[in-house]
Fold these 4 entries.
Entry 1:
Amino acid sequence: MDYDLPKTVNHEKIIVIIIIAIIISAAIGYMGYRQFMKWHENELQSAVSEQQQKMTEENADLEYQILQLREKIAMLQPPPVSDDRITEVFGKPQADISTETDHSCNAMRNKIKSFFNYLQQNSYTGADQTEKNPSAVFLQMVRALSANPPMIVDETRDIVSLKHNLAHFYRVLRKDRIEMIKNILSAENDVLEHAMADFYIYYVTGDCCKNDDEPCVSLNTLYEYAAFFMNTFAGKSYLFRRSSTIRCLTDYYTVLILDKANDAEINRYGIDIRPYIDLSMGDIISQNNLIFQDQYIKTLTDLNEKYNS
């Protein structure tokens, strides 16, 4: 009798069972893998969608912020001064000091005269009836400031000297004239940049065309006040109370005056112009309401090269 046959059959059954188990396990594993991959894909898609939604919202916020910034910048930009407005104040349109060609004595004198006539028509006068004509008031102020220069050296040696220097303009020009100047600065701020350019060209670089009737200021006096604004606590304090535009332009013209003083060899306080050129350049660049900004930058760049070559 063959007693080994049942053992063979049992062995084959075991092999079949193992194979079937392996197949079933593989099938279950494959199905589980498919389910896992499907779940992972759904999760990934959900995460991507969520991220896209977040990015869309962030982009919308950024676009809104950019729009707000553009609106703020637009509000800060100076409204263009119309030719009619310039003609009203100065007698003729003035587009750009860098392209203005007629700087003749007569042309500049007419513009200054038109400016004073405009001020007179708008009643910018003090209470004193003898000061009805703004040009006469200007002449009196020039003479008063020239005869009473501010303290440049040792202003802080004692409290009396400092207070004296802090009140310099109030003492010299008196309350009525100070009020008139403040009113002009406030009401005519849109044309002050043009006025400062014209006054510098006519009274400083043009030297009033050597006209004895004009209230010309000597370079020595101009240098004293440039030093006052640059080198004294009182001068800096005065500019600090002005608008950023007036402060910026005053600093710019004091640099130009100091350059002239250097050329004339009258820089008796030994003021180094170089840091003031850099400071003025920084202030000019940071401003976004200057009509002649490009010309200022070019002039300061030329000065920088002059003193650093």
Note: Residues 1-76 form one domain.
Entry 2:
Amino acid sequence: MAHYLSDTIIDFLEYLEIEQNRSIKTVENYHHYLMRLVEFAGDPDVDKITTETIRKWRLWLNRHENESGGTISTSTQNYHLIALRSFLKFCSKREIKTLPPEKIELARTKRKQVTFLNPDELAALFAQPDVNTKIGIRDRTILELLFSGGLRVSELVSLDTAHVSTKRREFTVRGKGQKDRPIFMGEAAAVWIDAYLKTRSDSSQALFIRYGGTKTQDNSGDFLRLSPRSIQRIISRYAKLAGITKKVSPHTLRHSFATDLLMNGADIRSVQTMLGHSDISTTQIYTHVTDPHLKEVHKKFHKDIKST
């Protein structure tokens, strides 16, 4: 029985959605990556996929121009390979003859430089929204919550007003891999959320809503959620107004959250849990910020042996 690549990919995507309960966004991404293999290789039977097929596909990806006219980054090429490896594992589970998944090796990538804001930069950033307006109060609340809770921007825009308890100062979000984790907020974030909610008289369940743009409400009259791209633009604009020269994104505030915890003595396992990292190696990109602290520990506790 023939198992054509495109048909088997559809079966795999349905498996991800139904049996693995992966998010629609994940399924869409995997579909995008795997269809690039179909674009390159045609639609062969999956048993025709060999290591040579994959080698040539990787060359093709490396030289391929993306939609904006640039090349595909090494990290994005690895996302293609991760999707392929997952697809091959699915085939193995279904006893469909094809290339073993362990034959797929990811390309080496340079460790990303973590960008975070120091306390003075954070203070300057938080001072930019005009809190005499409802938009300014909303934006200040966004900044406070991103930094206080270490949220991903996708998690932030998905929040509903019913999700957040300012009395308990904690709530739960569903992050990557459909995993739930607790989010804790400081007193300042809780105060700003309460202030922001007092400006709201609408019935929209979304926590952070649009006030500008071409469309602010849906057909029922409820305000629409802010999108991740809108959050990005808001933060970038305030960073420029604050005179911060480094590139600032919602993820910069997540980096700042993790850095602040480590600099103040939090253990890396706790930080891993609060960030929702499944692998501690992901959290370890932040440990360089503790170097000054380690130097002080060494100076305080390490004693030289005095020679006689």
Note: The chain has a mean pLDDT of 88.
Entry 3:
Amino acid sequence: MRKVLFGAVAAVVAAAIWFVMSLSSGKGEAAAEPSGVSAAETMRLPHIGLQQAGFDPARLAYVDEAVMRSIDSGDAPGAVLCIVRRGGIAYLRAYGNRQVLPSTAAMSEDTVFDLASLTKVVATNTAAMQLVEQGRLRLGDRVDRYIAGFEGWCNPDNKRDTTHIRIIDLMTHTSGLPAYARPETVAAEYPDLCFPDRDATMEYIAHCPRQSPPREEYRYSCLNYVTLQHIVERVSGESLDSYAAEHIFRPLGMTDTGYLPDAGLAARCAPTVVDRDEGLLCGVVQDPLARRLCGGVSGNAGLFSTAEDLAVFVEMMLSGGEHCGVRILSPLAVKAVATVPRGFEQFGRTLGWESYAGYTTTAGDLLSPSAYGHTGFTGTSIVIDPQLDLGIVLLANRVHPSSTGSVARMRSEVANAVAGAIEEL
């Protein structure tokens, strides 16, 4: 079916457009097309019929009920759902409101969301895997190879007995690093510095107390991905925001995706919390570590995007790392990302993602064992099921206007309703 939807001719044309785009002005700006269609628009997924995507339209209506139950219960003011299957967008719908303070604004399909921890997999992890497949990085490399003085686990009874932290430990959240670093805690360690200060933040992480030896416990940690960000930047010679834009988002035509949204994108953002000092955050990352310590560009959070942009990313992953003739990851890199590494089965984490059999119910109860996904604190989530050729992007701003809502049940119910509506495997 993919070959029907995206034939060889379309792939060649898209690849040619991207080649021309990458040569112009050094910034990836597309040359004018005779048809008036931009290169980015050619990368957009087509909207296909539900039956063409193998869904029963009547049964898929249950997803609307699941989302609205959550909104009516006060879990989130609104949401956007996008379902990807068979090379196209089968379903795209906005629900509720994107804003309730200081005034009410309806949710729209093109609303820009603070992705929170989806940043880890969409930007940081993808960048790291590109460097791995280029032979510039190894999963088994020690972190102190790239960050001088980065400490491992030291046996308190024998200071010479050290277990070093490796890149694979960062990706699988088995490094032993603490889960988080509060801005006030880090600032207190460096009273003479003015934050945000990324270098000081990294120095703090390099030496803060370890909670356990590497590869002995699973502990989800934002510090893992701040560290991975610095490794990506050291190896590539580019800041993470520039690297991701140049090597991931721009090639895929994801024009609404990036760090530090400009005024145009910020105007379409779903606001998040009301900060005591900064007021209503809109177009500014909610995560305090990313905002106050790292200046908005961080490996753990800070990315903004839309449902349709993320649909392109999901389709790239479903298609073995390629979309419309543009390759972002190799097929084997995608397979590695979707698989729990050998020796890490007990932790239920792939290289960056949550596995179906892991610690989450995001994928619901009916998707295949090959499903993997990730969530974000603000209410965002992605589920990818290669076996079913299915992607579910569910974006909600559950932290607006306060962080009291929970969309965990909604995610699971939506996944079940989507799976239950599939009539053609």
Note: The chain has two domains: 44-111+306-420, 119-252+275-302.
Entry 4:
Amino acid sequence: MVFDATRFIVGDEWAYRPRDDAPSERVKIRSVKPKKSSARVEILFLDDPDSRVENQPAARLRVPWTDVAAYDLLMANWQRIDDHVLDDVEDTCVEEVFQLLIPDDVATVEWNPVRNATKVHDRARLATILGAPVDEILHGVQRFEHKESLMVSPVGTLLIARAACREHPIPVLDVVVEQEKAARQKCKHGFSRDSIRSRAKEDTSPEYEYHWYRRYDRPRHELLRQWCGHRSVTVHERLLAAEAETERLDILLARVIEALEKAGDDMSARIFAEEHERDRVTPWTVRPVIDRPLHPSEIPVREIRVRGGRWWH
């Protein structure tokens, strides 16, 4: 964005703040010195008994003094929701969950002026993702309305991420398992990473990769599992075990059928292969199907001939 120094007019009164959390001070512009991408402004502090004059960067002049009430209220709201600092593990997990489960047009994690605050754009869709009303999830959490969006504190960001994991655990746990598979290979064979100094690829040892896994990856995986809930983790692990066992038995049966064919028992091999394909248990067959009772007129008629030439229906 191109810096516009023309909005600073000599003689105008502005609100000055050396920091975001400092109180606003009323100043008058005495001179403006534009630069390539900024400006230096000489200001007179009107409420200072000594009439202090300073030369300050233009960025410290926040809003015209006529807008100071609304600006002070906004900054007070930002300070109010700045209630928690996420550690590195929480920070990374929140980023993964939002990327995986929450679209950007529903909610986004903000970095300025409050790190890890959440900006909720669409409450209805977020409630669908979380499986509960947003106000229920954020009960007691600091938040405020800002430009048709809801700004939520970092504590609320953690609650949103955890609720999303509880409602949709399988995608999160699938990612964790895939990352752990990759980490296992690295801890066995080492890896090739970008060097911090030369930016070139350099090989790492299995010991280094295991140290990396224990320090960075494992805490993140355990927190994501915790957010998903013990029951969801158990069900997911049982599902993975069942799928792996099914694949193992499928391969074993294929080897048995192949052995029967080589032994000359083609008929048994064909029967077992057909039965295996025909009677597979799938998500579409494991659920009981409840049909409505048929009217007698809908029941097909079968004719059976018995001894004596009579027909039975």
Note: The CA atoms of residues 235 and 241 lie 10 Å apart.
